[in-house]
Every structure is written in C-alpha cells, then in structure tokens.
C-alpha cells in the first residue's frame, strides 16, 4: 500500500440543506473512497470531529508522513471553518490535501479576497461590505447582495438583485439576521465562467475555463442544490477570453500561494471578466462538481485528478516550511 488516506468530511444532509449545502454527498464520498483505494491506498472515511482529531493524534509519530488527510470539511457559520483540517494537520505534522489554513480562511472572506487581489491588478467590480442594516446603499442600481462568507450559492436567490432603495430596505435587514456580513456589488449582467488551478507554488497549471449556464439570471441555491442540479458547462470560450482567464487564474494562485487546487469564478460585463470569488475547498464529485469536469476537459481522468491531488499534498508536506515547527516538535 502507498499509505493511508483519511477522507475527513461533512456529509450532505437533505434534512438540513441550507446548513449542509456545501458538504459532499454520500455518493461522492463513496466514489472517492473506491477510486483512491484503486490507486493503492488504504482509506478511512471520518466525519465526526472528535473521531478525526483522535485518529490523527494517535497516528504513530514515525508513520505520520505516510498518512494524508483529504480536507472535505466545510462546517458552517465560522469564518475559520474551511481551515480546521489544514491547521490541525500542520500542527500535528500530518500531510493534507489542498491549501493551508491561512489561504482557506482568506478565500472564505470574499471582501478581503477581493481587496487583496484588486491590489494586484485582478479585475473586480466595485464592492462594499455591509454589516449594519442602516448602511446607506451605493448610488448606482442595480446591485447584487450575497453573504460574504458562504459558498455553494447559500443565501442567494433572485430576490438578491436590488433594483431600488425600497428593495434595499427590505432585503438587507432580512439577510443580516441570517448572515453577519454581506457583500454588495454592481449587478453584472453577463455570463458566469469558472476555471481551476492545480498545483503547488512554482508548478501551477490552469485548466481550460468554461461558461456556467443555469436557468434564470441568478446562480441561486436552488440551482446549486444537490437535489436539483441543473447547471451545465459550456466550453466554447473564445481563445482571447480563455487566455485572459488563465493568466488571471495563475496570477491569483501565485498571489495567494495556494496549494493543490482552487476554483475561481468570474462574470462578464461588456465582454470583460470580473472576479467573483476564489474557492479553496471545491467539490470533488465526478458528477456535479465543476473542478473535476474542468480537469477532464484537459484530457485527464477522475482517478488521475485524485492521485495528482494526493501527490501534491505529500510534496507540500515534504518541502513547505510551514511544517517545520511541527516536524521539529513531533518527529
């Protein structure tokens, strides 16, 4: 056996779709488990926080370099929720897939991510952070409002399009009761695009981009729902636009110093792309997640994607300085 992979995951619960919308389905976890086993690894699926931490703490110190945790834990509400596993693994000197805790925490905050990337020349529309129901609306309508720290279109619907001051006064207080911070942007009327970046610092590769098509004019939580998945990818992106998006995507990965994989979303206005958000914990379903579909469009298989992501996690563990403290103290 090559080693042991822990699939640390939250599993989607149809009884609590709003809280667990970002979580992977049981079918996806099963597919990942069998695929990784076929690659020559032992696999353990763990979804309880106490169980995950107990297992990690009890891995013999000399064996930890042969274990790796696939970070599929999304949690809810906390701004640190996507960083639980990376921080724990780094502290215990256990390899993990994906980006560090610092990258996970930053990218979950759409406002701070946009502030940083805009300073490096990544095109973004204007944006504002709203924390108070009495916040004066920007002058130029239409606007679009969404939770600042959620993914999978949670809290997003057609009613989030703000056309007037009256709309603002009705919608903002309602959203603030559920989400502490809101991101407000001008409404971009063009098509949405997505692109992936695979690799660690110094070896990034951008996938081909694709348009994300869906019913209506808003990529809502109903579209993103695992129970009614109706989006589709259109890979007929012009060479000029594709080159621009790949350039921006690689620049974003370099600025963030991401690891393993990220997915980046853009939207067009007057045929120009503007950054929407960066997702450092994208889905890995072979059926409904866009990153594996983007990867496969590059001519590579789903097993190759999972194998490459595991290899990148081990490489990060071997070479990145962020593990030095834990290795010195634990090994």
Brief summary:
Belongs to the D-alanine--D-alanine ligase family. With 331 residues, the protein is an alpha+beta fold.
Number of strands: 13
Structural class assignment:
alpha+beta
Q: Strand-residue fraction?
A: 15-25%
Shape: globular
- Please give the count of helices: 12
**Major beta sheet summary:** 6 strands, antiparallel
Count of distinct structural domains: 3
Q: Which superfamily, in CATH terms, is the homologous superfamily of the largest domain?
A: ATP-grasp fold, B domain
Order of helices and strands: EHHEHEHHHEEEHEEEEHEHEEHHH
CATH architectural category of the largest domain: 2-Layer Sandwich
Please report the first level of CATH classification, the CATH class of the largest domain: Alpha Beta
Roughly how much helix do the residues carry, as a percent range? 25-40%
CATH names the topology of the largest domain as D-amino Acid Aminotransferase, Chain A, domain 1
The end-to-end distance, rounded to whole angstroms, is 22 Å
Tell me, rounded to a whole number, the average pLDDT: 92
Q: What gyration radius follows from the Cα positions, in whole Å?
A: 20 Å
Subunit arrangement of the protein = single chain
Uncertain spans, ≥5 residues at pLDDT below 50?
none
């Amino acid at each position: 056996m090559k080693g042991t992979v822990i699939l640390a995951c939250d599993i989607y619960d149809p009884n609590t779709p709003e809280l667990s919308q970002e979580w992977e389905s049981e079918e996806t976890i099963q597919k990942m488990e069998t695929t990784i086993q076929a690659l020559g690894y032992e696999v353990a699926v763990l979804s309880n926080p106490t169980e995950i931490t107990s297992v990690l703490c009890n891995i013999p110190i000399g064996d930890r370099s042969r274990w790796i945790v696939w970070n599929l834990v999304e949690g809810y509400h906390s701004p640190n929720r996507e960083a639980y596993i990376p921080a724990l693994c780094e502290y215990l000197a256990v390899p993990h897939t994906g980006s560090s805790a610092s990258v996970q925490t930053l990218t979950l905050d759409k406002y701070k991510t946009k502030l940083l990337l805009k300073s490096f020349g990544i095109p973004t529309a204007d944006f504002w952070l709203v924390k108070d129901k009495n916040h004066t609306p920007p002058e130029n309508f239409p606007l679009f409002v969404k939770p600042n720290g959620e993914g999978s279109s949670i809290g997003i619907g057609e009613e989030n399009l703000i056309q007037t001051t009256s709309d603002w006064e009705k919608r903002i207080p309602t959203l603030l009761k559920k989400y502490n911070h809101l991101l407000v942007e001008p409404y971009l009327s063009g098509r949405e695009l997505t692109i992936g970046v695979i690799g660690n610092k110094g070896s990034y590769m951008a996938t081909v981009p694709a348009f994300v098509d869906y019913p209506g004019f808003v990529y809502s939580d109903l579209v993103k729902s695992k129970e009614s998945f109706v989006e589709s990818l259109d890979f007929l992106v012009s060479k000029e636009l594709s080159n621009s998006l790949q350039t921006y995507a690689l620049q974003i990965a370099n600025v963030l110093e991401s690891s393993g994989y990220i997915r980046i979303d853009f939207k067009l206005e007057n045929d120009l792309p503007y950054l929407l958000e960066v997702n450092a914990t994208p889905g890995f379903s072979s059926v409904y997640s866009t990153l594996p579909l983007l990867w496969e469009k590059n001519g590579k298989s789903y097993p190759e994607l999972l194998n490459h992501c595991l290899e990148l996690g081990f490489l990060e563990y071997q070479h990145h300085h962020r593990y030095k403290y834990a290795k010195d103290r634990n090994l």
